[in-house]
Amino acid sequence: MERTDVNPWEWSKAFGYSQAVKVVRGERVLFCAGQTATGPDGAPPATTDMAEQLAVSLANLRTVLEAADMTIADVVRLTVYTTDVDALLAAYGSLAEALAPNLPSMTLVGVSRLAFPELKVEIEATAAA
Q: What proportion of the chain, given as a percentage, has pLDDT over 90?
């Protein structure tokens, strides 16, 4: 698979994402539904701390990717939903660090609520390999 990050404006790289990602000859594509800070049993998170929920959501995403024989480096697109944009931006460094050096295309969406009232962040991903 050939992957090319498309960034006609360089500023997005400083925020840890690409404007687009072009995939050529990708043999496998995985569309990952929203990953949240729910536990392995599906229970809502015990914490309302954004950084902690973001860490668990990313760990859950990695688990799903591994189950599909993929890694975070295969992620080409993310959509991040949050009930608190300011808190997510404050914790954003951990997300950018988890993705580095991979810069998927990304959209951040502020929402009024997620599946459980305790949830603060949900991550959708598309991976290609």
A: 65
